[in-house]
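Something for you to look into today, if you have time. I want to see for myself how the chain folds. Leave the record below and I will have a look.
***
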Amino acid sequence: MERSENKVSVVQERNKPESNYNGKDVATYRDFIRRIRDLSEYNEKLERVVADQSRELTGVITSNSKVISIIAHDLRNPFISIIGILEMIRDYFEHNQGSDIEKYIDIATESANSSLNLLDNLAAWAVSQDSDRAMHPEVIDLIEMLMDEIRIIRCSAIQKQVSLVYSIPPELSIVADEQMIKTVLRNLINNAVKYSNIGGEVKISASKENDYLEFSVQDTGIGISYEDQRKLFRKDILHSTPGTNKEKGTGLGLLLCKEFTEKHNGKIRLISEPGKGSKFIVTLPNPA
């Protein structure tokens, strides 16, 4: 009897600690599983972040490589043309004299202007890739800026007999980064001349309404199809088509126009139809 009681007692003693031990073990196990699950979810989030950043970095590298490749190729051609034309001028003077020399000079000048514009865009593009580069807002006289750009572009316009007309109120100004706004204006006017037909017209207008300044560049040229409009302003495509005089381009100019406009919290839009010309409109905040 005593043995039986002892046996029962032993069983009871064994059961009691075993029950307590199992309870702690289950709690520990559940906590361990929860931590593993949390770590797994955190790891998945990290993997998604790394994957997103890798895709973004790959896109940047691809875009930058594409831009550099295009520029290296297109920058070489104008200089080859300039050298060739200068050699022709030298040879011509050795054997002849006549009015054809003016045509050669015009071609060389056009090539030089094309190279200058490409170099300007390359420098501007390098600035746009520097996220640490701060903007330098200052008061800009739009008429003065426009006259500077027209002097550079005038030769190309004269060759195509394209009239440059502007309508800007006197003393109209804006507070903005001068180099960025110059780049926008230069590229829009260059493109307007590039896609204008012989004897066409390019009109540059500007006005201020409330706290916004709007300027536009409109041409009477060949226009842009809806399909091509969808390819503009994109880093992954850098779309460009030859001008009416077979002028080449990279597509970088319009991309810079968009980036620099947006850096000023502005917008750029396009109105165009094939055969009816194009109008690019830039709207920028300009509080009084």
Remarks:
- The chain is about 60% helix and 15% strand.
